Each structure stands twice: as C-alpha cells, then as structure tokens.
Amino acid sequence: MLNKAILMGRLTRDPELRHTQSNMAVCSFRLAIDRDRKGPNGERQTDFIDCVAWGRQAEFVSQWFAKGVMAIVVGRVQSRQWQDQNGNNRTAIEINCDEVSFGETKKSREANSGYGGGGYGYDSGSQIRPEPAASQVTPAYDLPTGGSDFEELADDDGDVPF
Predict the structure, then answer these.
(1) Do 17 and 25 contact (CB within 8 A), yes or no?
(2) Strands 70-83, 5-11: parallel, antiparallel or unpaired by DSSP?
(3) Which residue in 48, 53, 101, 129 could disulfide with 57, CB within 3.0 to 4.6 Å?
(4) The dihedral of CA 67, 73, 77, 82: what is its sign?
(5) What are all long-range contacts of 129-133, with beta carbons under 8 Å and residues at least 24 apart?
(6) Residue 74: band (very low, low, confident or very high) from pLDDT cuts 50, 70, 90
C-alpha cells in the first residue's frame, strides 16, 4: 500500500517540543495550506493539517522553525483514536513526518511583509538538516583513479544534437 503525503504550508504557531517517558523527542506543529480554488463567496479556503516529527527531526523543527515559516513536509497520513473525558470516541488525522525542510529562503520570507520578523538562523537558499548521529555517518569510499570505461570523444565539434 502507498501512504505518502507531501505538503507545503506555513506554521500556524511555534512548534511544541515534548519528550516521551523514554526521552524520545516529539514535536507537534500545524500547517496552514491554501487551496487552489476560492470558496463559493470568493473567499480563500485554507486547510489546517497537524504534523508530528520524532527524534532528531523533532529537535530540528523545534530549533529552526517558528510561526509563519514556510515548511515542506514529507511523511505518512496516520490516524489515532481515543476517548475524551466524556467517553466520546475521537479520531485525529495527522502527518507523521519523515522529512521537514524550509519552503523559502530567509530573504524571500523577510520580503513577504505578512510573515517577516526575526531571523531563524539559516542562510539564504539553504535547507539545513540535522547532523546525522555518529552511527549514521556514511563511510567515505576512495574512488578508483584509473581504469574507467569512459573516454573523451576526439571528434566532438561542440554542436548540440537537438
């Protein structure tokens, strides 16, 4: 089965970082995502989607994102069921985040007067990702220096064939 969600929207409030009993970081935040079409009265319609990030991703979101920041989220749609204080059955639909990245540069965010304010500590145009744990670092491999199957064409006249 396929369960993959890709969303882009602005955080409606600062992310909320908590820890489980086993000290696993969990961060909750909500994205406001405008719909492509306007409503019957011409008003813009917006969906509000709850998102949850875990572990290092949760710490990353908590540290670098704030209300109004554009975020791109890749994850899975999940539902939770519980009973409220009155015994009513409740269901929550949320995105369990696999990846969270910036949806705009700092410069473009500050240029957008409705969402400006405050530096969030990232460079223009970059997508900061949390550093991998030492156990997750990919080992470096030496590439062979010779014996390649590729060779430069001698009769290349520089014309593009299309």
Answers:
(1) yes
(2) antiparallel
(3) 53
(4) negative
(5) 129/60, 129/101, 130/56, 130/57, 130/59, 130/60, 133/56
(6) very high
